[in-house]
Amino acid sequence: MKIFSPALSRLARLRYSRIEHWVNDPIAAQREVLQDLITHGQYTQFGRKYQFSEIFNIRKFKEAVPIHEYEDLKPYIDPIMDGTDAVLWNTPVEWFAKSSGTTNDKSKFIPMTKESIEDNHFQAAKDVLTSYYHAVPESDLLTGKGLVIGGSHQVHPIKDQIQYGDLSAVLLQNSPFWSSFIRTPELSIALMDEWESKIESLAQSTILENVTSIAGVPTWTMVLIKRILAITGKQNIKEVWPNFELYIHGGVSFTPYKNEFLKLIGPDCNYVEIYNASEGFFAAQDRINQEGMLLFLEHGIFYEFMPIEEYGKEKPRTIGLDKVELGKNYAIVVSTNGGLWRYLVGDTIQFVTLAPYRIKVSGRLKQFINAFGEEVIADNTDKAISDACTTFGVTLVDYTAAPIYMSDANTGAHEWLIEFVEAPKDMTAFTVCLDKNLQALNSDYEAKRHKNIALELPRVIAVKKGCFHEWLKGKGKLGGQHKVPRLSNERKLIEELKHIHFELK
Fold it and tell me: Sign of dihedral through CA atoms 34, 36, 37, 42?
C-alpha cells in the first residue's frame, strides 16, 4: 500500500481545487444543486403534484412545496418499498437506510438512490479524505487500513431486490471492490447483526492488521478499543497499531468523550468530526483541532435553515445561506438526490464561521429541556458534564436528563442519570460543579436557578454499569448508529432507565 499513498495524495490535492470552487461561490453552487434536483424531480409523482415543471427559482420552490417531516413523506415512501418507481425520485430505489429512531421507538426508512449513494455519500467521503490530506500533507493514512465500525444488514421482506440496513451497512454493501484493500474487517464481520459478538469479532480480527484509522460513533468505538486493549495487554491503541493517526467520529457529541479517547488512543492522533446522517452526508471537519465542520454544498443537497422558534408553525419560515447568523440555533431542512423534499432532519445546528460556511450540531429539535423556560439543549449539557468530569478526574460512559415537574411538595428540578467508568467520590460536589457549569453556559437556566425559585439543584443518580447498554439492548438498538437520547422534556425514557438501574445487581 505504501506505493499507492503518494499517488492518492496527489489525487486528493487535485480534488481540493473543486472544493475551493464551491467554497468560494457557495450561493451559486446551491442554486445549481436545486436546479438539478428539480430537473430530476419533475418526472415523479411528487414533482407533478407540486408542479416542479413550473418552478424556476428558490422562492417559487419554497412557496410550492411545504416542509415535510418523516410522517408526511411516509405515504410516498411506502409505495417505493413495495416497488413503485418514480415516486420521489426518477431513478430506481433499491436500498433504504433504516434510521436509529432516536426521537421515538419507530424506525424510519430513508430511500437511498444511486445518486445519493455515489454523488452524496461516497463523494463526501472522498472529500473528507481530500480535506484531511490538505490539512496533513505528510499523512501516511492510506498505507494502512481503516477500521469501520458499521451497522447490520437485512433484506426487506416485501420485494426481493429492495434491501435495507443501517446507513453504514448500505454504504459498505455498495462500496467499490477495491475499497476492501484499504478497509477492515471483512464484510461478513462488518455486517454482523448481534452486536456483542460483533465487538469480539472486530477486536480479534483486526489486532494484527496495520490499522491507521477508525471511523465510528464514540460510545461504541470506546467499547471496541477497551476490548482490544484487554486482549493485547497494551496501554493504548498506538501501542497496538504504531501507524495509527486518525479517528473519524460522529453521531453524538465528542466533547464528553475526548479526554478518555486521548488516553485510550495515545499521543499524535488526529480527530475529524463528520456529520453523516441517513438523509445525507452534510459536513465534515476540514481543519485539525479547530471547531466547525465545512458544509458540503455541491453534493446533491439543497439546504434551508429554520430558526427554531418557527418550528410548529403552520407555515414556518426558512432562510438561505446568505441570511444565516453566527451562533444562532437553526433546524436544518434539506432537499436531496435521495428524493427528500424540504425535509426536516430533526437536528439543530449553529454556524461557527460564515466564510466558508462551517457548522456544529447543537442538538436535536425534539431533544431539549424547556419545562420552566430554561431552554437547555444538548450542546449545553455536553459541555457542562465534560468540564465536570475533567474537574473530578472521572470518565463518562453515557448520560440522559429530564425535568422533575413542580408539585405541591417540590420546586422543579432536572434529574440526571449518569453512568461513569468510576463514579466521583463526592457526588454532591460533582452535582454542584455540573450545575455551575450549566449556569455559566445558559443564562436562561441560570435565571431559573436564582435562589432556587423555579429550579432546585439537579438530582444526579450514578447508575449501575451497563444500565444504558441494557436499555439499548431491550429496544433492539445495540451498536451502529444507535444512541440514548441525551435530553427529553418528558419522563418516559428516564423512568425506563431508572427501572433498569434498580433491577441491575
Answer: positive
How confident is the model at residue 344, as a pLDDT?
96
Name the band, by pLDDT with cuts 50, 70 and 90, for residue 100: low
With cell 442554486, the residue in question is 31
What's the grid cell of residue 194?
A: 448481534
Mean pLDDT of 482-491: 86
From CA 346, how far away is CA 107, in angstroms rounded? 14
Structural domains of the chain sorted by starting position, each given as residue range(s) with its CATH number in brackets: 23-95+290-363 (no CATH), 116-277 (no CATH), 378-503 (3.30.300)
- Which DSSP state fits 489? S
Among residues 418, 382, 406, 428, which one has the least CA distance to residue 497?
418
Give kind and range of the element (H or E) at residue 211: strand 211-215
Task: Indicate the Cα dihedral angle 312, 318, 323, 325, nearest 10°.
Answer: 30
Number of H helices, E strands in the chain: 18, 18
Q: Is pLDDT of 86 > 60?
A: yes
Q: What is the DSSP letter of 415?
A: E
Pairing of the two strands 93-98 and 163-165: parallel
Burial 100-132 (b: 16+ CB within 10 A, else e): bebbeeeebbbbbbbbbbebbbbbbbebbbbbb
Query: Which DSSP state fits 267?
Result: S
Gap between the Cα atoms of 195 and 217, Å rounded: 14
Q: How confident is the model at residue 480 (pLDDT cuts 50, 70, 90)?
A: low
- The DSSP code sequence of 422-476 is S--S-HHHHHHHHHHHHHHH-HHHHHHHGGGSSB---EEEEPPTTHHHHHHHHTT
Contact 385, 458 (CB under 8 A): no
Residues 6+ apart with CB under 8 A from 318: 62, 67, 304, 305, 306, 310, 333
Confidence of residue 329 (pLDDT cuts 50, 70, 90): very high
Model's pTM, two decimal places? 0.84
